[in-house]
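Quick note —
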Amino acid sequence: MKREIIRVGDRVTVNQKPLLSHAAPPIKIGSNVHVTLRRRPGGRVVDERRSHNIFLDYGREWLSLLVGYDTGYVPFRDDRLRYMAFGIGGTQQVTDSAVLRGTWKGFPNKWDYEDPDDLSTGGYGLWTDPGTGNPTYTDTDPLVTGLEYPIQITDQNYYDNLTAPASFPEAGTIRVTAVLGYNEVSFGSATAVPLSEVGLFTAGVPFSYYPPLDDGIEVDPPSPPVPPIGTRYMVAYNTFPSLTKTSSFVLQVDWELRFA
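Predicted structure written out below.
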């Protein structure tokens, strides 16, 4: 299994003998992702994937800003972990890309956004290019900025709430969980969706883009909300050999961040 470790070190210069005879080891942040398919919430696991995710450069940025204050003791950021989003991209997708292109127009990563000031689309570009090639995103590249091919949770939303409260299995470990219900992701004509990527997002993620008019009046938000591509709020990313989500199953993701 892949393992990605972030080292958070600190550098201090002093002009006296240290009290300890050896330096403390750096803090390491590790992540584990457990994806399970179940007949009912909390029920027997039908299929599963276990792996280690990549903590992204955006995640490092988020952590560093989260722990400090700006002028007037105003936090630089106070957006905690809040959402997961899912997709059918990533290099571990096992369904042939030609099949995906025939089922989900625009695959892979062909979003063709129009000018956000073009009010004819409500500031929201449509993706119409049928796409070429295979998925390219990996969970070993910290430069990933969003999902390669996001799939809607419902017809109005790309993001799934984490359950609250979060749990703490042991000191220095936080576990967050998201559960896709029977008719989430698998709805309408999308009766069998081969999920293969998931991202962990903070509460700061924008759900839609409101293009300002000259008079300052905002237009109605687009529908569906802007998908999770190129957002600074995805802090961790994972790919896995695809699991097919249908309305017969719920899908649960348990995501652990370990500070040790």
